[in-house]
Amino acid sequence: MERDGNAWRLTDAGSAHLTRAFPGRPVTVFLTPNGCALWGLAEEAASVIDHGSVRLLLTSPPYALTTKKRYGNEVGQDYVDWLCSIIERLMPVMESNGSLVINLGDAFIRKSPTVSLYQERAIIALQDRLGLHLCQKLHWHNTSALPVPSRWVGVERVRLKSAVETLWWLSPEDRPYADNRNILQPYSDRMLELIAKGGAARSKRPSGHACREGSFSVDNGGSIAPNLFTIANSGDQSYTRSCRAAGLPPHPARMPIELASRLIKFLSRPEEVVFDPFGGSGSTARAAESLGRKWITTEALREYVEGAKLRFADELLPAAA
């Protein structure tokens, strides 16, 4: 293993020993009262999940990076075709008014300080080929992001570090279930003062928007969240330590549990099903379990499934312990 910023990851020699699933029916590795972790290929999951049962498909697939990663990735048009083919095979498991959220990050073009348009091409293809609606672009600001790509940011100093990733929110319908009241943010001190004095005075802003007398006088329990989630990805050290203690490689690309939690609360209700076809370290599953949702994950590399299992030491059903 080798150190990479705040995380430990396998060297190329170590990655050769990861156990990849074969095509076919996924295998159940562990169960909890609310969920099921499968070892298998993402595109095979539709064979074992009830059609029309998933409220939220939340996932972070491998990005279209020009450098191959141990968890697998395509590049260019091959990536667009690959992602569309997997989503197409998984669409039958979703509720008609369910949501699909795909977390993607920027990829720089090989040997160039310019950014690939693979994300935009993939989303346009998902709309054109599968008829999916783009509900909104959400963004994740990782306040602990490393200064990458290192050549352009740290060496030549001609670019800013990439610290924002896009969460593409799509759905088969244009009005999927969502409720922003589930992720309200605390009011600012200024807003609390405004509510206490009975709201704003009548005014007209330079932008042309008018404010009527008494606006913002009602306490709704918090302010509406913006489409920017500011959450540090500091490495999830407890997960990393557990993997190392068990002799397992930690997954190198982990979504923060807090980010998964906010999306789950926004786009699903308790007891509904959340599905992550690229389960990775189990962040989506862990968040869903804690929030009282049903969950399913698939992951192609067996060692990563075993690492995710460590997140559920107190919830494993006896047969899977």
Any overview of this molecule?
The protein contains 9 helices and 13 strands. The chain is α/β, with parallel strands linked by helices. It folds into 2 domains: 2-185 and 224-312, Vaccinia Virus protein VP39 (Rossmann fold, 3-Layer(aba) Sandwich), CATH 3.40.50; 186-222, no CATH class. The chain has a 9-stranded mixed beta sheet, with helices on both faces. It has a two-stranded antiparallel ribbon with strand order 1-2. Helix 2 (76-90) runs parallel beside helix 3 (118-130) and helix 7 crosses helix 8 (283-290). The two termini are 27 Å apart. The model is unreliable at 1-10 and 67-73 (pLDDT under 50).
List descriptors.
globular, 2 domains, two-stranded antiparallel ribbon, nine-stranded mixed sheet, Rossmann fold, 9 helices, disordered N terminus, alpha/beta, single chain, 26% helix, 321 residues
Spell out the blueprint of helices and strands.
Layout: E1 2-4, E2 7-9, H1 12-15, E3 27-31, E4 35-39, E5 54-59, H2 76-90, E6 94-104, H3 118-130, E7 133-141, H4 150-155, E8 164-171, H5 189-196, E9 203-204, E10 210-211, E11 228-230, H6 237-245, H7 257-267, E12 273-276, H8 283-290, E13 294-299, H9 302-309
Parallel strand pairs: 4-13, 5-6, 5-12, 7-11, 12-13
Antiparallel strand pairs: 1-2, 3-4, 6-8, 7-8, 9-10
Helix pairs in contact: 2-3, 7-8
